[in-house]
Amino acid sequence: MTATVIRTVVLLMGLVCAAKSTCPEIDQIHCGTSDRCTRIRYICDGDNDCGDSTDEESSLCAVWRNSDCERNHAKCTRSGRSDCVTISTYCTLTDPPCEGTVDPRLCQMLKDGKIQSLNAIQMPTPPAPTEPTTIQPSIHVRNENWSEQFLLKLNSTIHHPDCPMLYTKVGEHCLSIFFIGNMSWMEARTFCQTIGGDLFTITKEFNMFATLLQHFTTHQVTADFWIGGRYINDTLGWTWVDGSPMPVGSPYWAVRHEERCTNRKISYDLLNVTLPANDGVCYNYVQAPRVPPMGHCSSLSYEYYHYMSDNSCFIKKSPLCVLVGEHPKQAQ
Questions:
Q1: Between the CA of residue 106 and those of 115, 125, 149, 259, 294, what are the distances in Å?
Q2: What would the pLDDT profile of 24-40 be if each residue is shown by its tens digit?
């Protein structure tokens, strides 16, 4: 093979690689040495998805996994709250950014779009500091605007003339949407009981849930809230604080993706039979708490558009309280 032919082959190989530089889906990443793309959530799952084992490289997996959250997730602390988010989300949140123990080289690897060993990841050189030119007075205007927005949100979440102090009117009920506090689930319930209520539950008026979500959207409420549901045991399952069973599934629980797929079943009560839906098609999306449960307390998380999700009871979230024992119109 002549030198000219060799150069031509190398050039063609470079063009082919360049053409394959983008994976077909946004949640995918290039493997280390093969031409494959694999999903980010498959990294360090114990399977050689790339074929070259780069997605299971030991030094990478040593920092990809952590003891705080499930695989592919990491603890993100921002604005006084700590939540488990995907590593991709951890690396892309900027205002404010996540504070945690994720190795910054993982974020750089995801930004580069290619699986690499830790030692091969090159971090960008930070720009040299520059002298400040002039003080921007607009920062004071932004602070004043932020204060006005905070006051408007405060008035719409813990104040209403038809409700006691710290409560506002949502539908026909008085709720305390205490977004300025963060505490564990048990602390949140104690707080609600101290101000004459209990953690929010949905037991009779199912349209109340839709009314609450609309209230959050209208008033730009972005906090995560504890509600009055918890996993008791394998016999009682998920139960509201008043002892009634919690609904599991649509339209309350958040939709999430699972690596394993399962069949969905349809029960025909009149025939007393249960059959697989759609000829036994296997689905990867679930609208229910995790089995077995990884968190034993229920919350409304902004990440999941304030649909229900299961969390560790010790994570810090805001209390969502409902007034107990009084009709909202009579509460003074």
A1: 9, 16, 36, 21, 25
A2: 888 899 998 878 899 99
Which residues does 269 contact at the CB level (< 8 Å), separation at least 6? none
| pLDDT at site 67 | 82
Nearest-CA neighbor of 255 among 283, 217, 214? 283
Residue 331 burial (CB < 10 Å; 0-12/13-18/19+)?
A: middle
Task: Please check whether residue 184 is in contact with residue 315, taking contact to mean a CB–CB distance below 8 angstroms.
Answer: yes
| pLDDT tens track for 85-98 | 999 999 998 888 99
Query: CB burial class (10 A; 0-12, 13-18, 19+) of residue 57?
Result: buried
Instruction: Work out the angle at residue 215's Cα, subtended by the Cα atoms of residues 205 and 144, and round it to the nearest 5 degrees.
Output: 155
Average pLDDT, the chain: 82
Helix (H) or strand (E) holding 42: none
Q: What does the pLDDT average to over 183-204? A: 92
